[in-house]
Every structure is written in structure tokens, then in C-alpha cells.
Design a protein that fits this description.
It is built from no helices and 19 strands. With 201 residues, it is mainly β. A hairpin with a 5-residue loop joins strand 3 and strand 4.
Length: 201
């Protein structure tokens, strides 16, 4: 059994291709372990807590994650060496979404960002009216993000241009879930409500 030295809120990321488990902790460090033996492989320290699960970019073999130091990081999966560190305007509680050559990630500066997956450079962003704790999702050809302004936003995947939104009674701080089979959207709010939605015909 492996053990991190601080409280851990985020879920572990299992990378089958590398037989590796990666997890961030409240000590600001990301830990990588051999998934079979639990042997430590590498660590990487940031300037803030790591609250959410990392994502794996298979095409570039890198681990993508966010920290409350307002930075999105990309690390080489084998070595833990940084490929880039992109600063945003606020703490980050988001699990990144890797889609093709773009990384989508949200920030407490009220924005969702599209980053170049190689350089980390900001390609575009969309600003909501509230802080964003939720993680982005890709569904039905669009990027979806919930905000503390109580809205679920639908954005174009290429430029993050607004396509539409739905206003709820309370904040949306969790990731939206989409069922490809039923074409239904599931959204949770902090008012203890769960919504099942369909597109208007």
C-alpha cells in the first residue's frame, strides 16, 4: 500500500499503458506509483493544493492536472518532468479534458480555457458570470461547463464561442454527464437537485 503524506481529495488516475497510478495531494505534490507493486516512480511539487483528478494525454504520453496555484501542468508520464506549466487568473479545481490537440480546463477566475496540448499556450477562453469549480465535458459535439452563476453553458469546441445555456436555481459545481444512448444530460446543483434534460426539438 502506497501512502501520501497529506490529505488527498482527488481521485487517482490509472494509466494502463504505463501500469502507473498518478494522484495529487493537498501538500501540492503529484505522486506516481507502479500500479502493481506500489513502488514510487516520481513526484512533482507545485505551489498549491491539487484537489481534482488528473487526465492522461495518450497522444503525447503526458499527465495533465490543475493546482490551486492557478496553473495547469503537463508532465511526462515516464519521468515526471514538466512539458509545460500554464498560469491562469485563478485557483484551479478542474479535471482537464483532453480532446485532440486541445486541453480544456476551468478556473476560479470564471473562465474556461482551451490550451494547446503541446505548448500549453492559451488558444481561447470563455468567461462566465461566476467562479468555475466544475470540470469541462465533451458531448453532442460541444464543450459543456457548469458555473457558480447557476448556468450550464454549451460552447463550440473549436473557439469556445457560446452556443447556448440553461439557467438553474443554484450553482453547478460538478461535471455534467451525458448519455450517448438516450441523448440525455444529467446535471447536479448545490440545491441537492439532479436534472435529467433533453435538447428541445
Amino acid at each position: 500500500a502506497a501512502r501520501t503524506p497529506a490529505l488527498t481529495h482527488g481521485s487517482p488516475l490509472y494509466i494502463a499503458q504505463r501500469n502507473t497510478v498518478v494522484i495529487g495531494s493537498n501538500d501540492g505534490v503529484v505522486y506516481a506509483y507502479n500500479a502493481t507493486s506500489g513502488e514510487p516512480l516520481w513526484t512533482y511539487a507545485t505551489g498549491g493544493d491539487i484537489k481534482m483528478r488528473a487526465a492522461y494525454d495518450e497522444k503525447r504520453d503526458q499527465v495533465i492536472f490543475a493546482s490551486t496555484d492557478a496553473t495547469c501542468y503537463a508532465l511526462d508520464t515516464r519521468t515526471g518532468r514538466p512539458n509545460f506549466a500554464q498560469l491562469t487568473g485563478g485557483d484551479m479545481y478542474s479535471t482537464p479534458l483532453v480532446l485532440g490537440d486541445t486541453i480544456y480546463i476551468s478556473s476560479l477566475d470564471k473562465r474556461i480555457y482551451a490550451l494547446d496540448a503541446i505548448t500549453g499556450k492559451i488558444q481561447s477562453y470563455f468567461e462566465t458570470s461566476g467562479r468555475i469549480f466544475s470540470s469541462p465535458a465533451y458531448a453532442d459535439g460541444s464543450i459543456w461547463i457548469g458555473s457558480n452563476d447557476g448556468r450550464l453553458y454549451e460552447l463550440s469546441a473549436d473557439t469556445l464561442v457560446l452556443k447556448g445555456f440553461h439557467q438553474f436555481s443554484e450553482r453547478v459545481i460538478n461535471k455534467m454527464v451525458y448519455d450517448n444512448e438516450t441523448k440525455r444530460f444529467f446535471v447536479l446543483t448545490v440545491a441537492n437537485e439532479i436534472y435529467c434534460m433533453e435538447r428541445a426539438s
